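Annual report, structural modelling task.

Input specification for the N-carbamoyl-L-aspartate complex:
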Amino acid sequence: MDVTWTRSHILDLADWTAAEYDIVLQTACSFRDVLAGRTKKVPALQGQVVTNLFFEPSTRTRSSFELAAKRLSADVMNFAPGSSSLTKGETILDTAKTYLAMGADIMVIRHQQAGVPQFIASEMDRLDVGVKVLNAGDGQHEHPSQALLDLYTIATLLDYEKPCVEHLKGKKIAIVGDILHSRVARSNIWSLTAAGADVHLAGPPTLLPTLFSGMKGANQTGSLTLHWELEPALVNADFVMALRLQKERMTAHLLPSLREYHQRYGITRDRLKSCKAEVKVLHPGPVNRGVEISSDLMDDPQFSLIQQQVTSGVAIRMALLYLIGTSEDP
Ligand code: NCD
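The model returned the following structure:
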């Protein structure tokens, strides 16, 4: 590959190029082979310290980053706000500086407020300490590693040996549900349209405001279409991504009831009949079973990629930690 990796932080995907996505996909692919091997570990980040600063609840993302860092032989420190000095009034920046003083090399940050990873990254750059920052989900803004593992899951399904963005060109991908509150949707819009896919967003008007039609990426080669009804988004779709209703981020009554939501926008086997015959369903998790997606469909390996997404997460996060962990400071 003639493109080299230049980013020292991964904060958002808005300006990523197809070539950068391909570097991540190829790197993840080589780690997939490591994970399938006998020792499952490489010494790539030996001696480096990865700090998981999760200010918001998480099951799969935090565990996935932890395992990925351990598979790269890094030392991992986990932070949980409930049992930390945050409860004594310490600021987020002081928390980050405490980990810096212990020798953190990479900070993986999740926060309920958009912009926190960017803020810590700018401070680390200002201090000139060479610490790399990876956004593990900030408010309603972005969740780059989730979109990258979604991209990898789709690309490996299309070509297991050589997953690359080219395979997504012209694929119809429906993203359904609570788009408004979803950082996963935002990151996926950047990555999938940069990969040349035709992305169809569907959800109730209260959860899919028209401002989303203005999300035009600098490197977008695919299209972006909005629907307030589910059916047109599903017709001939190759992939359907259901999103969780983010009740914790809803400040107003945006839905009549969960039952009615499921009736109008829930993904079921019956609804998938208008999609391509080999359609696959994704969901970033955690799932509200029987709301965004019917329980039987979620567990049906013919359609559901949900478990593959979790598995892909480890290889993708190894790739991201490796790429920023070994990148030279600009
Ligand atoms: C997502 C998140 O936290 O943004 N989950 C995840 O990281 N797997 C989606 C969600 O919470 O619905």
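The chain has two domains: 18-142+311-325, 144-310.
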